[in-house]
Amino acid sequence: MAAHQAAQTLAEKVWNAHVVRKGEGVGAARQPDLIYIDLHLLHEVTSPQAFEGLRLAGRKLRRVDLTIATEDHNTPTLDIDKPIADLTSRTQIETLRKNCAEFGVRLHSLGDKEQGIVHVVGPQLGLTQPGMTVVCGDSHTSTHGAFGALAFGIGTSEVEHVMATQSLSLKPFKTMAINVEGTLKPGVSAKDIILAVIAKIGTGGGQGYVLEYRGSAIRSLSMDARMTICNMSIEAGARAGMIAPDATTYEYINGRPHAPQGADWDAAVAEWDTLATDDGATFDAEVFLDADDLEPFVTWGTNPGQGISLSGVVPAPEDFDDENARAACERALTYMDLKAGTPMKEIRVDTVFLGSCTNSRMEDLRAAAAIVQGQVKDPNIRMMVVPGSARVRLEAEAEGLDKIFLEFGAEWRFAGCSMCLGMNPDQLAEGERCASTSNRNFEGRQGKGGRTHLVSPQVAAATAIRGTLSSPSDLVDSSSDAKVA
Amino acid sequence: MEKITTHSGIGVPLRQSNVDTDQIIPAVYLKRITRTGFEDALFAGWRKDSSFILNQEPFSQGSVLVAGPDFGTGSSREHAVWALKDYGFKAVLSSRFADIFRGNSGKQGLVAAQVAQSDIELIWKEIENHPGTEVTVDLAARTVTCGSIIAPFEIDDYTRWRLMEGLDDIGLTLQHEEEVTAFENERPAFKPTTLPARFS
């Protein structure tokens, strides 16, 4: 990374402020830096073996006061007051409870009003702040980068390493600027930006990089929308994505339970104001995307890079120059049971899933509710709405969003990861097709043999009304057609 | 961690790009709380198909997986590495690895060797035309050998050193515990703590 006096990027500043010990050597022989970790988030799936490792080695958890746990991946979204029916899920949750009690870790369990998806819980408690290093045994930890934090997913060995040492040995990342200029059209959202970015640079394009999302289109986004974008950085291959903190960021944090208070707030803001990338700092790579031209974006295949404008058609293997991409397209079309040339808007779905750490926050629920309010759901569609946290659920209910979804015919569930990865009972059946606001359309991700199209909350809502992949603008068109008829 | 300098074993061709960790080990197997015993979970979805490469002899006995680009994308689950290791794999060759998967491999003694796609293609041909051909991964020389093919591979120096010495990362870091404490003492007071818990 650049020397301190040179112009630096946001990512470099945060990195440099956390170097406990600099690695020796240069180039390929460069040893990793030892980086201090400000916040460690835990959940039930990737922590049991790490706790066990500590126990076997007779080690302590170094900073329980920088650690917090919640239950999310396995938790049911119905009947949460009853014992978890799946015994292995129940054991995993109970193991987390025992481990947290033994090591003194703060835990928000199912039924607690701060429980929810780990990446929704951290920000809403005000624990995620600019300039921090945040890690979790979950690749979507990149979400927290929306606050100008350096946040990334780690494996279980690293979870144990952070527990024992509150630090990680890491090689410096390269930096990539993702410049998004312009104004989004109505009905187009942050999800469409990030799906378009991934389609542009590919699922491996961000490998080895920290992405920094910049430009007027990014600056105008709310924190909920910025989290959607940073969340899917990993789908472009980048461990982390960041957005420089600004007034929008400060307004979101101010007043939250763990936000700095009084003189600490002033000191924090003074520090946060210095984080933005310096004029004249250089990135190792740059990407440009025009927000003005962007349309609702959806995936047709089985990796998040296989996406296209909703107004497009299913591509053919011949459309790809690269042999691997051609083979991947062919395989994906077979798995997805799609024919090349089919207009995306003619694809009929069975299930609509509104939720996940990508799109389960208030803004997402509000956007979908505004579209389905007073409309009739396609009778063949099952729609599940799963708030990202118990607190989001409560806030949504206070605004009456639950009633809008229920009147529309959707299911209103309790918080968790749910159908994003189907570790709980919320799964697709074999061959079922889903328009999903989640982040991964991998084979079998939402249930064995299930087929996933990644969409925005707006597209999810419009699809639930029409039964085929649809954008909100299709609703306007069809209602005006009806008037003419 | 066991020391590794060189490994030879049957090469398994996996002619696919973007093999994500959901394919390497589906989420349903992540509910276990142990660190071993994941061999049945490896590629569980694909292994139901009798034509899948690991259902064919002699590939079922393989220990060097030769995969397409962007191997190990998606979820951070280290279970993917555990499943590969529990099945018997010692090394994976690919032209591009997802960052988290690569890191997890290094922690668990699985060699993630980055080989040029043109060399992967040559090795695929060799092990498909002559099933059972061994692939040798030599960490000291940083080469992969298969039949008459000798190809260089990339792996970062630090990971290579740790693999060859069989070193435990936590133990290495704890040698610098005083520096961690010194850093901790200088952290700004405004940085948040999770305890005592505050509620809205």
From TrEMBL, chain A:
<dbReference type="InterPro" id="IPR050067">
    <property type="entry name" value="IPM_dehydratase_rel_enz"/>
</dbReference>
<keyword id="KW-0479">Metal-binding</keyword>
<comment type="function">
    <text>Catalyzes the isomerization between 2-isopropylmalate and 3-isopropylmalate, via the formation of 2-isopropylmaleate.</text>
</comment>
<comment type="pathway">
    <text>Amino-acid biosynthesis; L-leucine biosynthesis; L-leucine from 3-methyl-2-oxobutanoate: step 2/4.</text>
</comment>
<keyword id="KW-0456">Lyase</keyword>
<dbReference type="InterPro" id="IPR036008">
    <property type="entry name" value="Aconitase_4Fe-4S_dom"/>
</dbReference>
<feature type="binding site">
    <location>
        <position position="420"/>
    </location>
    <ligand>
        <name>[4Fe-4S] cluster</name>
    </ligand>
</feature>
<dbReference type="InterPro" id="IPR018136">
    <property type="entry name" value="Aconitase_4Fe-4S_BS"/>
</dbReference>
<feature type="binding site">
    <location>
        <position position="357"/>
    </location>
    <ligand>
        <name>[4Fe-4S] cluster</name>
    </ligand>
</feature>
<keyword id="KW-0411">Iron-sulfur</keyword>
<dbReference type="InterPro" id="IPR004430">
    <property type="entry name" value="3-IsopropMal_deHydase_lsu"/>
</dbReference>
<dbReference type="GO" id="GO:0003861">
    <property type="term" value="F:3-isopropylmalate dehydratase activity"/>
</dbReference>
<dbReference type="Pfam" id="PF00330">
    <property type="entry name" value="Aconitase"/>
</dbReference>
<keyword id="KW-0028">Amino-acid biosynthesis</keyword>
<dbReference type="InterPro" id="IPR001030">
    <property type="entry name" value="Acoase/IPM_deHydtase_lsu_aba"/>
</dbReference>
<comment type="similarity">
    <text>Belongs to the aconitase/IPM isomerase family. LeuC type 1 subfamily.</text>
</comment>
<keyword id="KW-0004">4Fe-4S</keyword>
<comment type="subunit">
    <text>Heterodimer of LeuC and LeuD.</text>
</comment>
<keyword id="KW-0100">Branched-chain amino acid biosynthesis</keyword>
<dbReference type="InterPro" id="IPR015931">
    <property type="entry name" value="Acnase/IPM_dHydase_lsu_aba_1/3"/>
</dbReference>
<protein>
    <recommendedName>
        <fullName>3-isopropylmalate dehydratase large subunit</fullName>
        <ecNumber>4.2.1.33</ecNumber>
    </recommendedName>
</protein>
<feature type="domain" description="Aconitase/3-isopropylmalate dehydratase large subunit alpha/beta/alpha">
    <location>
        <begin position="12"/>
        <end position="467"/>
    </location>
</feature>
Automatic annotation (TrEMBL), chain B:
<comment type="similarity">
    <text>Belongs to the LeuD family. LeuD type 1 subfamily.</text>
</comment>
<comment type="function">
    <text>Catalyzes the isomerization between 2-isopropylmalate and 3-isopropylmalate, via the formation of 2-isopropylmaleate.</text>
</comment>
<keyword id="KW-0456">Lyase</keyword>
<keyword id="KW-0028">Amino-acid biosynthesis</keyword>
<feature type="domain" description="Aconitase A/isopropylmalate dehydratase small subunit swivel">
    <location>
        <begin position="1"/>
        <end position="116"/>
    </location>
</feature>
<dbReference type="InterPro" id="IPR050075">
    <property type="entry name" value="LeuD"/>
</dbReference>
<dbReference type="InterPro" id="IPR004431">
    <property type="entry name" value="3-IsopropMal_deHydase_ssu"/>
</dbReference>
<comment type="subunit">
    <text>Heterodimer of LeuC and LeuD.</text>
</comment>
<protein>
    <recommendedName>
        <fullName>3-isopropylmalate dehydratase small subunit</fullName>
        <ecNumber>4.2.1.33</ecNumber>
    </recommendedName>
</protein>
<dbReference type="InterPro" id="IPR000573">
    <property type="entry name" value="AconitaseA/IPMdHydase_ssu_swvl"/>
</dbReference>
<dbReference type="GO" id="GO:0003861">
    <property type="term" value="F:3-isopropylmalate dehydratase activity"/>
</dbReference>
<comment type="pathway">
    <text>Amino-acid biosynthesis; L-leucine biosynthesis; L-leucine from 3-methyl-2-oxobutanoate: step 2/4.</text>
</comment>
<dbReference type="InterPro" id="IPR015928">
    <property type="entry name" value="Aconitase/3IPM_dehydase_swvl"/>
</dbReference>
<keyword id="KW-0100">Branched-chain amino acid biosynthesis</keyword>
<keyword id="KW-0432">Leucine biosynthesis</keyword>
<dbReference type="InterPro" id="IPR033940">
    <property type="entry name" value="IPMI_Swivel"/>
</dbReference>
<dbReference type="Pfam" id="PF00694">
    <property type="entry name" value="Aconitase_C"/>
</dbReference>
